[in-house]
Structures are given as structure tokens and as C-alpha cells.
Amino acid sequence: MLWIGLAVLIVIIAIIVVLISFIRGEFYFSRVRDNDTLSVEVRALFGIVRYRYVIPIIQFKGFAQGIMIKSEVVNKASTKLKDETKDHITKDKVIAYYNEVKVLLENTLQLYSWMKQTLARVECTELKWITRVGVGDAPETAITTGAIWGIKSTLLGFTIRYVKLMTKPRVDVIPQYNQKQFSTEFRLAGRIRVWFALFAGVRLLVRAAKVKGGLRTWIQLALKTRSRVKTAS
Asked: Membrane-crossing residues (predicted)?
């Protein structure tokens, strides 16, 4: 009986440790000349679970074909390429995604409120956004620099409004006078407790269940998205 009690105690402690641990995420984007890189990394269970999604190729093919992207899924623990997909993001696909979001809003009770409450539990651990810009003329470069500062202030103000900022942001716009240049590096890292992520998921299901056909709509869109990803690969 003593060993059984000890085993149960160990299991309970392990569950508590897992629940109070963090799910960590990092979004990174950089553009240097014509080279774009975008990556999303997710880590959980103290780094035991770790996946990295990379988009090393982003090419604008025109308004008709849209944007061609190549994405990779890497298991960082073993540094192995798990999956690779290519896709074109066209105007029609953007409209379709927008319509799907509208459907989810209509089939989930107060989804916007749920998003705000969930984001309030997210802790921002790193925020870096450095941009270098030059248009070949000093006065025009100064005007462009000010405009970019305004855009950044608006976007960052929205981010800081909804999440907990745990670090000092590193944000700058560096003018490159008398030369044509544009490069930017953006990194955003955050974390959320496992227990609250699970709790938020349960609350989302409850809100969907309160709308007639809500759960069925979520399941159908999830299956549709999964099928779309498989087709793209």
C-alpha cells in the first residue's frame, strides 16, 4: 500500500508540474533585400515537445497568382525535417479564410471576448523590431522613417494592450540616408501556462456548444483545414 500511495503521489506531483509549466512560442520574420524568412516555434513540457515551422521562400507572383510560399516543419529536438509543403496564397484564398473566420464568429458565443481573456494570460517575453530604410534622398528618407514609426507605434500599441509585457521592447527605425535600402527584423516571443491553455480550450468548446451547430462547424472547418494542408503537401 505504501508503494501504491507513493506512486499516486508522484503522479499527482508530475501532473501539477506539467500544468504549471509554460507553453512557449516565438514568431520571427526578417527581410534583407529580396530574401524573406518567417518561422514559428512552439515549445512545451520544458522543451521535450518542440516544433519549428519555417517559411524560407516567400515570392510575390503578381496579383493573379498571389504569393508562393514554401514551408517546412522541423522537429528541433532531433533537427529532422518532418514535412515540406508548397502553396500559393491568392486573393480567392484570402477571401475564403476571411469567410471562415466570419463563420466561426457567428458560431461561437462571444468569441472576441474569449480571445481578449485568453490573450490577457499571455506573457510577452521578447519584443524586437528593427527596421533600416532608405529611399535614396535624405528628406524623403526622413519622412518615410516617420511614417514607419507611426505604423509600428499603432501595431505595437495593439499588441501591448492585450498581453502582459514582461520585457523592455527593442524597437527602432534606422534611416539610411542617400541610399536605397529596406530591411527589417521582427521577433516576438511569449508564453502561457499549460493549465490556462487547457482551460481556455474547454471554455472555447463550451462557448461553441452554446450556439446551435457551433461544435459541428468547428469540426468541419478543422477537417477542411487538415485536408487542405495534406493537399498542399
From this structure: 6-23
